[in-house]
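Q: Structure tokens for this one, please.
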Amino acid sequence: MGQVSGWRLAGMLLGLAALPALAHHSFAAEYDQDKPIKLTGTVTKFDVTNPHSWIYIDVKNADGKLVNWGFETASAANLYRRGIRKDTVKPGTVVTIQGYLAKDGTNTGNAQTMTLPDGTQMILGTEQNPG
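A: Here is the predicted structure, written as tokens:
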């Protein structure tokens, strides 16, 4: 196998470093600010991760069937600064999430706020949110 020049190696490393940036997306690329949504459901999972965290809730549809919804939120660091930790909301907690629907028609949204059973409202939205 041939040797890799310093410049070529540097270029390959820069290319690899750019991959996370390519995976990141803007709000407008995936969500429709003209389609607000407000759902109440039971938390099934809260993944506090980067670049965005996700909260999943089971919601009863019009037929009474449970449908799992996934809502993208701000990054772990932004949630942490707002006082939200991975154990702030545990599975089984009933919450109300307001946000915007995904453009692809799936049971996915971008969460802006979450209201807890005691009425506490938490901001979950990203910096790229509308308004």
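A few notes: The chain is about 20% helix and 40% strand. The chain has one domain: 26-123.
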